[in-house]
Design goal:
It is built from 12 helices and 2 strands. It has 331 residues and is mostly helical. A hairpin with a 2-residue loop joins strand 1 and strand 2. Helix 2 packs parallel to helix 8. The radius of gyration is 22 Å and the shape is elongated.
């Protein structure tokens, strides 16, 4: 991947002493220039990683704020009667920033030495070929989805839900900014699935570049924000890839509290049977569409089903909150 061996970090110019810049593409030159400009690889990686996360997260969330403000898009809103207010979005933003600076920033800042310890390339150029990058990202998606499926279910267990995960369920109708609206402990727990896959891959394979990880983080943030957007467009990815979860899948989880614990894909929930209520809900909506109802009648039917799901979800939430170390409190 690189024709340079690891060198002391006290002089960044030594990192590329034997690199032929004429053989690099534009992006690779910019990458090396960044490390040379900052002068310290640990600082350069930490700063670039944090800026990438913030720019991608808020950059992807802002368009959904705009969409929420335009009534035209309500016909694709999964819960059209629940539009986040400016106060809700500001409260959400503050909590998200708190988690970013108290949990994610320290982890991101320590990632460079940890990455190198596990054999991951950081400052090195050139980048790996796309033939190597794509299978790696596919593995990260599958690994994270399975990790999240089990960890998310664990967070729905009594004490963990009551003291940690409940914050994320504050909004039965989620919106883009709420993707990382969570207790700092939850950010750490579920975020582990995002970075553990690459770390394990680097440990056992030793051919992973942090550039690939940045692509993975970007795609993962897009997935998380879009899944919480609350919109299901005809061109949404789940209509192209039937196994993709998307907002339509995850929105039900927030509305009904139960089912649909995975992130990117539907197969874990399907195999485990943790999508039974969701599939029954979709079947009733599909039947209503086939019944030839008018747009107004269908909207009323959908509102009724949503209210039922949310009511049942509130009851399920109460039960979860009353579970304590294997026992359920009797109300």
């Amino acid at each position: 991947m690189s024709n340079v061996t690891a060198l002391p970090h006290n002089d960044a110019s030594l990192l590329y002493a034997s690199t032929d810049f004429t053989q690099l593409n534009w992006l690779e030159v910019q990458w090396a220039s960044w490390y040379l400009w900052i002068g310290n690889p640990i600082l350069a990686t930490g700063l670039m990683s944090f800026l990438l996360h913030e720019i991608v997260y808020f950059g992807r969330a802002i368009p959904w704020i705009i969409v929420d403000a335009i009534p035209y898009f309500r016909k694709w809103k999964l819960q059209p009667n629940k539009i986040p207010t400016a106060a809700e979005q500001w409260a959400c933003t503050k909590q998200v920033l708190f988690s970013h600076f108290t949990v994610e920033l320290p982890v991101i800042w320590l990632f460079h030495p940890m990455a190198e310890m596990f054999g991951m390339s950081t400052w090195q150029v050139p980048f790996p070929a796309w033939q190597a990058i794509l299978p790696q990202i596919a593995f990260f998606f599958v690994f994270e989805d399975m990790f999240h499926f089990f960890a998310h279910q664990a967070l729905h267990w009594g004490p963990l839900y009551k003291h940690i995960h409940k914050i994320h369920h504050q909004y039965p109708a989620p919106f883009g900014l709420a993707a990382e609206y969570a207790h700092p402990a939850e950010v750490f727990i579920l975020g582990t699935g995002t970075i553990l896959g690459p770390i394990l891959y680097a440990m056992f394979r030793g051919d992973l570049h942090i550039f690939t990880m940045y692509i993975w983080i970007t795609l993962r943030l897009f997935q998380a924000v879009d899944a919480h957007s609350g919109y299901d467009f005809p061109w949404s990815l789940q209509h192209i890839l039937p196994f993709w979860s998307g907002a339509e899948h995850h929105d039900f989880h927030h509305m009904a509290f139960v089912n649909n614990f995975s992130t990117s894909f539907r197969w874990c929930d399907r195999i485990a049977g943790t999508d039974d209520k969701y599939r029954a809900y979709r079947a009733r909506l599909d039947a209503a569409k086939k019944a030839g109802l008018s747009a107004e009648e269908y909207a009323k039917m959908e509102e009724k089903l949503n209210a039922e799901a949310e009511r049942e979800g509130a009851e399920a939430e109460k039960i979860a909150e009353n579970v304590t170390w294997g026992k359920t409190k009797v109300q």
